[in-house]
Amino acid sequence: MKKITFPHFKWRRDKKEKTAKRKSSLKEMFGNLLIKIGFLRIDRYIMWQFLSTYIFLIAIIITIAVIFDYNEKIDKISSSHASWNKIIFDYYANFIPYFSNLFSPLFVFIAVILFTTKLAGNSEIIAMKSTGMSFKRLLRPYMISATLIAVTTFFLGAYIIPRGNVARVNFENHYIKKKDVTSIDNIQMQVDTGVFAYITHFDNQTKSGYGFSLDKISGKKLVSRLTAQTIEYDTLADKRYSWTLRMYEKRTLRGMCEKVERGDKLDSTIMMEPRDFFFVRNQQETMTLPELSEFIDKQKLRGAAGISTFEVEYHKRFAMPFAAFILTLIGVSLSTEKRKNGMGTSIGVGLALSFGYILFQTVSATFAINANMSPMLSVWMPNIIFAIIAFVLYKRTPQ
Q1: Alpha helix positions (H), the chain
Q2: From edge to edge, which strands make up the β-sheet containing 221-233?
Q3: Residue 231, phi then psi, degrees to nearest 5
Q4: Angle at 96 between CA 95 and CA 102, to 5 degrees
Q5: Could you read off the pLDDT of 33-89 as tens digits, one per residue?
Q6: Which of 141, 157, 153, 150 is nearest to 325 (CA)?
Q7: Where are the domains of the chain?
Q8: Where does residue 282 rank: exposed (0-12), middle (13-18), buried (19+ CB within 10 A)?
Q9: DSSP 8-state assignment for residue 274
Q10: What's the predicted TM-score (pTM) here?
């Protein structure tokens, strides 16, 4: 019996074959390109093992962390009558990326220890070295993977996660810690060079206050004073620092002369915002890198105290990604040799070092906040110490 071929099906089959050939040629071309730059199949294998183990560890450990966190806070959450929508989307949807990013160096270290020890136990590293591959060459895929993780964690921690932390921190302060700060009395701050603002009372919910005055001083002389019964922050304005003063009076002093101006309403630009008045718990975690930098500069200009917490957070955003390289080097140096007792020793030493790093980081940050230690030095000190340890272990590893 003669086989009937429909033109439509033939066209689809030919199209699939052409697509498959195109994909195959692109894959071959990409593979040849990687080989030309010295990127071998073994490199892709190590990177896959590294990154897949890293992601698997995040999934497992963060799942356990969420369960423990919920069990610990279930009474407070229940008594606060928070809706499931807020619990899931405001709190845990932001809790997971925050702590995944925070403990990323720990996950990197454990991932390297686990799969490298397994490679060594299966004699795969011995086979690599027998082909003439040096330890330095073996490190290449590890460091490429560490670079991918470091760049990702930096951008997430600097720009993306702080946006979500706003909802998480607000949830914690309102439903768990129950430390909502809605108003403040007797605000005094320097808003610009020689310009000082005073507010008797400010309500953060209405973004308004009363008993406002703004003094401008040149040298030791008062140049002008602006007072108002009430002050309101314009949240709908196109630009920042927009305030509306009601029942205002402005006095300008020029020598022995005084100019007085009064009115019912005055729209003015004053270099302050409502968030400058309130220091809420973990506020530094809700700021992006540019916002942190601007806030620190602004507070220094005002002569404000207690900004070391924000400075520690600022420097930590830069220091944390470098930990991926340092702990990767330590992990590989500890795990490449095949041991008689299996991976137990390597994992034990690795866990001790990783928790030691986190403990050292926490203690040094506390010194910066409470003991007037340089925030930059306190944040980078764990990296410096562990970089020395990594270098010593690297030199002791057979090359």
Answers
A1: 7-36, 41-80, 84-85, 93-102, 104-121, 124-130, 135-155, 161-171, 289-302, 308-335, 344-370, 375-396
A2: 183-192, 195-203, 208-218, 221-233, 242-254, 257-269
A3: -140, 135
A4: 85
A5: 556 656 678 888 889 999 999 999 999 999 999 999 999 988 888 887 888 999 899
A6: 150
A7: 40-179+280-399, 183-277
A8: middle
A9: G
A10: 0.78
